[in-house]
Amino acid sequence: LNFQNGYATEQFEVDKCNLFSNEKNGLKCVTAELNDMLYAGEEEKEDLGKTFILAKNRVTGKVRLIEVGSALLKPILKVDNDTPQVLETSHLELSRKFGSKKQKQQMEQREKLKVNVETVTEQMQNVTQAISEDKLDLSSYNKSDSDDFYIPPIDRTADKPENVYDIDKILTEDQYEKIYSELEEKDYAAEYTPFIKSIATGKKLSNRQTVLAVYANSLLKYSVTMAKEVSKKNFVACTHSPTLNNIIQANFSVMTNGKRTRPTPYKDKALCHA
């Protein structure tokens, strides 16, 4: 045992010592009475190991290992909680009888500000009983917290990598046809990023694959475009296809105070779709 304000010597003796168990945290609590003063402290935790002492029986010569713990005992001071209230009441009575006009006004004001806790609690309970619970659908408020917000429609039960994303769900059939007709006779491949070029060059792409290549290329460029550029009225996300440009701006930006902006979640979404 260690004491907060001193060290125990060989002549140390306590009048009374008790050991209790704290049901909340499982620790042992030690109390000791010394010179009419009560000391108490909890057993200190030893996360990295345990402490043992070796005890030898002088008669049999056998030894035992005994687990021990340490505790820091602090004096327990008795506090009379009623004293401040008594002093405050006496002060108010003196101010009422013998105080100046200003002191009497201050005393009256303080009494008016006093709150009966029980009365207020009862009033609040009466108010809350009359309140009904309205269940709201908050799913739309947390869209950006879901994986489905960032990625295209995905088949989580697919057994092959090529079946994970269904290209028929990325764009509609009418959108594929219209976008491809807008891309015809245009040199869209010249603006491919190195990543898209490495995938598309030297391969015979179908009409839909061509549309998706331009779509992914436009999203990659869109995700690295400065935010102030996206906010301009004349900003175009895809110069080769007005339809694709409208799709990108509708799905990867929002209108704020009449101005088109691209918050960070929408920037990340564009990169994931690409």
Automatic annotation (TrEMBL):
Transmembrane segments: none
Compartment(s): Nucleus, Nucleolus
GO MF term list: DNA binding
Main location: nucleus
InterPro entries for the chain: RNA_pol-assoc_fac_A49-like (IPR009668)
One GO CC term on file: DNA-directed RNA polymerase complex
Cleaved signal peptide residues: none
Keywords: Coiled coil, DNA-directed RNA polymerase, Nucleus, Transcription
GO biological processes: DNA-templated transcription
Coiled coil: 103-130
Assigned protein family: Belongs to the eukaryotic RPA49/POLR1E RNA polymerase subunit family.
Name recorded for this polypeptide: Uncharacterized protein
Organism: Pectinophora gossypiella
